[in-house]
Amino acid sequence: MQQALQPSPPQHVGLIGDFASEDASGPQLSSGNFQILVMALRWASTRGSEAARWQLLRSYTALSRAQFRQAPAPAAFARSEPLATSGVLTAPAGANSLLLDSARFMSQRPARRRSSSGGDGKAESTEKQAAATSATYEMLLQRLYQVNRFSAVKLGLENMQELNAAFGDPASQFEIVHVAGTNGKGSVAFKMAKALERSGYKTGLFVSPHVACFRERVQVNGTLISESEVCEALSEIFNISAQLRIPATFFEITTMLAFLHFAKQGVDCVVLETGLGGRLDSTNIVNPALSVITSIGLDHTRILGNTREVIAREKAGIIKPNVPVVVGPNTPVNVMMEYAARNNAPLVRVPLQAEFDEDYNAENTAIAREACVQLNALHALQTGGARSSKELCIDMTSKSVNAALESRPPCRFQVLHVMRPNSKERKVTVVLDVAHNPQAIDRLVGLLHKRFPDKKFRFVCGFSADKAINKVLDKIADVVHESHPDESDEELHSRIHLVKANHPRGASLEEINLALANSCVDGEQKREYDSISSIKEGVDAALAASRASSDDEVVVVCGSVFLMAEARQALGLKEPIDSAALNSVAGSHMSTPESRLSAAAEEAEVAAAT
Questions:
Q1: CB 340 within 8 A of CB 306
Q2: Helices (H), 287-344
């Protein structure tokens, strides 16, 4: 049987009919055939015809479905249907999907003859091509954002496993550091990616959500994926999802796009941030070299559960058998140890230090540093056949690496000094921070007091509709009151400017004020804050008030990642940014997930049944 695993390419294609041994219940995996099929698919994707590729793809996905679901697939599914053999990849007639492959079509069509005028004609052609790519990029992203706008998101791994299988398992082609947590996971992922890059590894980084541009989510050595690369990958994913009838969600498609890009770029390693939770997150199909869980707090409680222990079980779902895991000091250690023991996974917990209460970046740096130490330990062990690709080793004595570990991603306590051009007005210190839940606000407040001990504060705040708005505003009001102890409530509240993000998930001013009214106890007067219709107007008003004040104020913009793009624009920062039309629908994919049992509830139900 071992000899059958290395047939020549023609034999790969000829063996399709023997891959599934069918009985009354459908196709079943034959010994060794699944591995042959993987090899055949990879061969066909580079050298075979489109027809051969589609035949292999359908057989592979049929067997994958049977394996992943641990239940037989319909017998008819493994049989190839007639497919187009020329032109772009298309699904069979009648597939319920709009198929877009304009990026590939544009790249394959013959170039128009240029006039002999030289440089001007070439520049004009380049501009037209760039404009066409941008138009395709916008069209495809509009479609992506609409994927599950009007239906509930069904959390689970099945769709992602099928998509990954359909593309030949790109998720296994590089080493992975998998990062989850309520707060800090984006910062830790950013720090680790920088450290790996400066250690000489070609490093991919996958994070979410983005601040101003969708392409921020997928980076290689700090370079964002290009618009044309997004177009090419999305076209392929849309086509295959329709062909194989995989109802992939926004985040599943985006995760698949990242895997395809990283594989195409030939990266050595990837730092992969989870989107929501961990156990059923789209990223959790991987077998990482190292898992990291940064912190556990109360966020997304409607989906993940309403206690830290229940949420911890969801995050701990990324712990894999025999894979080391690093956990931060603000995690329920009993839950982490339980899951690590269950998976025979070595666990290292970063000890709590006093400075973490005042500086959350110090905690994130400590977690990232410990994760690097554990990667070096894996390298030193030289485990031989346990892993086939090269181990990762980070030079912890390098000044460049240590600077990377101390760095911050944008909008994580990002300090700016703002002054209008050609103006003699004093500079205003502005802090941008994506803190959006009570735990994150506590940490932001601690860092504000540490960094600006004698300053007074003014806030520009906006929120997502599903956040604990009243609790967050209570904490912000306390900070303002502490820095202005002699002012009346009315004066204090005028120093908090409420805004609405231009985003589907952004809470309206009416929703914010309703949350404040509902939080009042009997006889308590509702707090009235300064309500402003747009983020730009809110930032401008805060800057103007700060300049006019005799106090040396710091303006803090916080409450939601969805504020940051417009806030940075209002402050004059230049960066890649998607169109207003795209950003206005960028959260429309975040519909309410279907109600489901949390990991703890599922375990309790199973225990009761047995």
A1: no
A2: 301-304, 308-315, 333-342
What residues pair up with 22 in beta bridges, in sequence order? 27
Are the CB atoms for 260 and 206 separated by under 8 Å? no
Structure tokens at 600: 């703890």
- Burial pattern 319-341, b for ≥16 Cβ within 10 A else e, equals bbeebbbbbbbbbbeebbeebbe
Total Cβ atoms within 10 A of residue 111: 7
CA 250 to chain centre: 11
Work out whether strand 456-461 and strand 553-558 pair parallel, antiparallel, or are unpaired: parallel
Distance CA 558, CA 545 (A): 18
Q: How is 210-229 classified by DSSP, letter by letter?
A: -SS-GGGGEEETTEEPPHHH
Distance CA 77, CA 26 (A): 9
Asked, as a colleague might, if the bond just before 209 is cis with ω within 30 of 0, I would say yes
94-151 residue pLDDT tens: 333 323 333 333 333 334 344 444 556 666 667 777 777 888 999 999 999 888 765 5
User: Which residues make Cβ contacts (< 8 Å) with residue 116, sequence separation at least 6?
Assistant: none
Q: Determine phi and psi for 590, rounding to 5 degrees.
A: -90, 60
Residue 356 Cα to chain centre, angstroms: 25
Q: Which of 272-286, 415-429, 507-521 has the highest mean pLDDT?
A: 272-286
Q: Tell me phi and psi for residue 69, to 5 degrees.
A: -85, -10
Q: What is the pTM of this model?
A: 0.70
Residue whose C-alpha is closest to residue 244's, from 141, 320, 163: 163
Task: Tell me the domains of the chain and their CATH numbers.
Answer: 2-78 (no CATH), 158-406 (3.40.1190.10), 414-583 (3.90.190.20)
CB 412 within 8 A of CB 187: yes
Query: By the 8 A CB rule, do 530 and 498 touch?
Result: yes
Read off the tokens for 178: 């998998």
Query: Tens of pLDDT along 176-196?
Result: 999 998 888 999 999 999 999
Burial of 91 (0-12, 13-18, 19+ CB in 10 A): buried
Q: Which of 483, 440, 438 is nearest to 459 (CA)?
A: 483
CA triple 460-548-487, angle to 5 deg? 70
